[in-house]
Amino acid sequence: MSPKSFKLSALVVLAGWLPLISAAPASNGGDSTCRKTSVAILGAGMAGITAAQALHNASVSDFVIIEYQDRIGGRAWHGDFGKKADGSPYVVEYGCNWIQGLGNTGGPQNPVDLLAQKYHLANTYSDYDSILTYDETGYSNYTDLIDEYSDAYDTAAAKAGRFLVQNLQDETMRAGLSLAGWNPRHSDMKKQAAEWWNWDWEAGYSPEESSFVFGVAGDNLTFNQFGDANNFVIDQRGYSAIITGEASTFLAKDDPRLLLNTQVTNISYSDSGVTIYNHDGSCVSAAYAITTFSLGVLQRDTIRFSPELPQWKKRAIQNFAMGTYTKIFLQFNETFWPEDTQYFLYASPNTRGYYPVWQSLSTEGFMPGSNIIFATVVDDESYRIERQTDQETKAEAMEVLRQMFPNITIPEPIAFTYPRWTSEPWSYGSYSNWPPGTTLLAHQNLRANTGRLWFAGEATSAEYFGFLHGAWFEGREAGAQVAALLQGRPCVQYGDDRLCGERIHYETLTGTSPLSQYSILNGWAVSSLYDGGDD
Ligand SMILES: Cc1cc2nc3c(=O)[nH]c(=O)nc-3n(C[C@H](O)[C@H](O)[C@H](O)COP(=O)(O)OP(=O)(O)OC[C@H]3O[C@@H](n4cnc5c(N)ncnc54)[C@H](O)[C@@H]3O)c2cc1C
Ligand SMILES: *[C@@H]1O[C@H](CO)[C@@H](O)[C@H](O)[C@H]1NC(C)=O
Ligand SMILES: *[C@@H]1O[C@H](CO)[C@@H](O)[C@H](O)[C@H]1NC(C)=O
Ligand SMILES: *[C@@H]1O[C@H](CO)[C@@H](O)[C@H](O)[C@H]1NC(C)=O
Ligand SMILES: *[C@@H]1O[C@H](CO)[C@@H](O)[C@H](O)[C@H]1NC(C)=O
Ligand SMILES: *[C@@H]1O[C@H](CO)[C@@H](O)[C@H](O)[C@H]1NC(C)=O
Ligand SMILES: *[C@@H]1O[C@H](CO)[C@@H](O)[C@H](O)[C@H]1NC(C)=O
C-alpha cells in the first residue's frame, strides 16, 4: 500500500465519525467559561514537556500544560531516602533509573543520552558482568546459565526478524526461547533466575506474557541502534533534572501556561476542539489536546471521555499491557555484601521472581559509603508486596539476605522504603509492554487521534515502548504534527520521512501486519532489523 492510500482510508474513516462528533458540542455547555488555548497538553512528564517544546520550536506559544502533581517529571520520580554521614538524605529514583541504549559511535544517539550530557546528569556504567549468583544456601556460581540464555536469545532474535519480514504470526517470547533451545523446567530455579535477570527485569513481564516479535524488535531498536550500554543515573538532583531543564528553555518560572496540582477528570473531544474539565471545577477549551497519560491511567477508566472513546481505541488501550516494576530500598549501618560487585542474583527455592535482583549503591561509582542496596520485583510479585505492609515486606527481604549471606550477622536496616506504582492514581503501573499476538496496526490504534484529541507517551511508541526515550520521541512527533495542523501546514518532515495531517487508525484488525506497513505512518520510523552495533 502506498502512503497515499493510507491517507485515503484515514479520510474515509474520519467521515464515519462525523455524526457522533457533531453531537459533542451540545454537551460542552461550559465552553464559554473555560480558559481558551490553542493546545492543551495533558501531563508534564517527558512526553508532555517534549510536546510543549516541539510546539514552542514551531512558534506555537499558546498552550496550557495540565499536571496532576505539584511537579514536572511524571514517572521520572525520585525521593529522599536514608541518610548520609552529615544527616542529610540520599536521593533515589523510584521510577526510571537508567539511560538505556548508548555507546555506539557514529550512529544515531539516544536523545535521552544527549539530554543527560547537556545537563551533566551524573550516571555510571551498569556492568551486567559484575554479578554474583546465590540460592537459598548462599553463594552458588551459576553465571554459565546466564550465558546459556544469551546464546539462545541471539538465535531467537534472528528468527523474530524473519517472522517480521515474512509477516508470520507472532508468538510468545516463551515459545521463541524454547524453540531456540532455552526451555527451563519450572522446578529449575537457577535457570528461572537467569531467565528473570535477562528478560523479566527489563520487560516487567514474563516471557509467557510478552510478544516475541515486538519484544525482540524493541530490544534491537534501543540496544542495536543506539548502543548496548545502560548507564545508571545517580544524580542527586534526580533523573527529572533533564526534563525540568528542557522545560526551563521555554517555560518561565511560575509560567501561567503550567497548571500544577490539577487533576483532569473529563475530556470532551470533537472534530473541532477539545474541552478539558478538572477536579477543581476549572476547565480549558482548546483547539487541540495531546494526552500523555500513562496506559495505566487510560486502562483504569478514571477519565470520562465524551463522547465515549470509539471501540477501536478502547480495544487498543485494553490490549496492551501496563507492567509494574518495584525497587525496594534498604539502608544499613554497614556494607556487608561484596562491595566491588554491582549485582547479586538470588534464586528462590519456591517462587520465581522472589527478590531476584539486588543492586548495590554502596559500590564505587554509585553512592559509595551509602550502605544502600535495593531489590527489584515485577508483575505478580509487585502486586503481592503492594498489598503488604512495609514491615511484612522488610521481613521477607531480610530473610532472603540471610539466605544469601549465611555466615554474616546482618544488622536491621536503618531505612526502608518502596513505591507502590500500581496504586499511584497518576500512573497506575510503571511502563507498558506488548503482549503476544499483537500487530503494528493494533498498536497504531493506541497512537491515533480521536478527533482533535491526540495521544502520546511511552506506551504510544511502537519502537521504544517502556523507555524514557520512547516518551521523548512520541512527545516530539505529536507536538510537531499538531503545530503543523494548527498552522495549516500540510506536512512535517522527519529526516527522509514526511508525516501529513491526522493519524491513521484501523477499524478492522487482522492477525498480522505486512512489512510494507512498517512505516512512519504506523509509528515505525527505523528498521529493527538493522544491526547498528560497532562491537
Ligand atoms: C519503576 C520504573 C522504572 C523505569 N525504568 C526506566 C529506565 O531505567 N529507563 C528508561 O528509559 N525508562 C524507564 N522507565 C520508563 C519511563 O519512566 C517512562 O517511559 C517515562 O517516564 C514516561 O513518560 P511519559 O511522559 O510518557 O508519562 P508520565 O511520566 O507518566 O507523564 C504523564 C503525566 O501525566 C500526569 N497525569 C496522569 N493522570 C493525570 C490526570 N488525571 N490529570 C492530570 N495529569 C495527570 C502524571 O502525573 C504525569 O506527570 C521506568 C518507569 C518506571 C515507573
Ligand atoms: C527544539 O529546538 C531545540 C533547539 O534546536 C532542540 O534542542 C530541541 O531538541 C527541539 N525540541 C523538540 C522537541 O523538537
Ligand atoms: C563462575 O563460573 C564460571 C564458569 O561457569 C567462571 O568462568 C567464573 O569465573 C566463575 N565466577 C566466579 C566469581 O568464580
Ligand atoms: C534483531 O537484530 C538482529 C541482529 O542483531 C537481527 O538478526 C534480527 O532480525 C532482529 N530482529 C527483529 C525482530 O528485528
Ligand atoms: C464528568 O464525568 C462524571 C462521571 O465520571 C460526570 O458525573 C460529570 O458530570 C462530568 N463532568 C463534566 C463537567 O462533564
Ligand atoms: C559459611 O560457613 C560454612 C560452615 O560454617 C562454610 O562451609 C562455608 O564455606 C562458609 N561460606 C562462606 C561464603 O564463607
Ligand atoms: C551495625 O550495627 C550492628 C548492630 O545492629 C553492630 O553490631 C555493628 O557493629 C554496626 N556496624 C557498624 C559499622 O557500626
TrEMBL record:
Family: Belongs to the flavin monoamine oxidase family.
Presence of keyword Kinase: no
E.C. number: 1.4.3.-
Keywords from the named record: FAD, Flavoprotein, Oxidoreductase, Signal
Residue ranges of domain Amine oxidase in the record: 46-482
Enzyme class, UniProt record, top EC level: oxidoreductase
InterPro entries (alphabetical): Amino_oxidase (IPR002937), FAD/NAD-bd_sf (IPR036188), Flavin_amine_oxidase (IPR001613), Flavin_monoamine_oxidase (IPR050281)
Cofactor: FAD
Residues annotated as binding FAD: 264
GO molecular function: oxidoreductase activity
Top-level taxon: Eukaryota
The keyword Plastid is assigned to this record: no
Transmembrane segments annotated in the record for this chain: none
Pfam families named among the record's database cross-references: Amino_oxidase (PF01593)
A GO biological-process term: polyamine catabolic process
Identification of the protein by name: Amine oxidase
Region forming the signal peptide: 1-23
SUPFAM superfamilies per the UniProt record, alphabetical: FAD-linked reductases, C-terminal domain, FAD/NAD(P)-binding domain
